[in-house]
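ok trying this again, last paste got cut off
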Amino acid sequence: MGVSATISGYMGGELENPTYEQISRGGTGHIEVVQIEYDDSRIIADGSDFFRVSVVIRSPLD
């Protein structure tokens, strides 16, 4: 689908520099996020299809 890079991380929350373990246990207020970079010249489908796929992935706990 033209994905050229991904970067995982977290955002929000109460702690300035939490560890992954702290976030995984919960209670920090952070959520895990992913940045997806893509090359639109390599996308076969309509770009809106790609966007829909990338934003529907959510935590089952939300």
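PB: full thing came through this time. The longest helix spans residues 47-55.
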